[in-house]
Amino acid sequence: xxxxxxxxxxxxxxxxxxxxxxxxxxxxxxxxxxxxxxxxxxxxxxxxxxxxxxxxxxxxxxxxxxxxxxxxxxxxxxxxxxxxxxxxxxxxxxxxxxxxxxxxxxxxxxxxxxxxxxxxxxxxxxxxxxxxxxxxxxxxxxxxxx
Length: 146
Known about the structure:
Elements: E1 17-21, H1 27-39, E2 55-59, H2 70-73, E3 75-79, E4 86-90, H3 91-97, H4 99-108, H5 115-121, E5 124-126, E6 140-142
Parallel strand pairs: 1-2, 1-6, 2-5
Antiparallel strand pairs: 3-4
């Protein structure tokens, strides 16, 4: 008798809600943990071509930190497609305007650049302060140090 590999089907994946507190957390370690949960790699029924991940809520995004001198040197850029259309913003400017974008950018950069990756990225909810509107989902809080 041969054992066959189990592939997760669309209806049999049970999604949970996970809460991550970014207060004092390092950006890269937080982003890798969130991306792993979004993809479902922490579950035994992980399937690479199916969305088996959970929803992730990140609070206190304005209190995330970078190590070393990255806070002074890190910059985010985008291009409009036109000549001379390169726009650059420093880490401090982005944290002052929209601190949620820093975490979203880091996590979505770790997801696949496919339709599946965009679908997994939509399950990420980031908030600058300690309040979030997802209390009804009863999220389980995880510790990043563990």
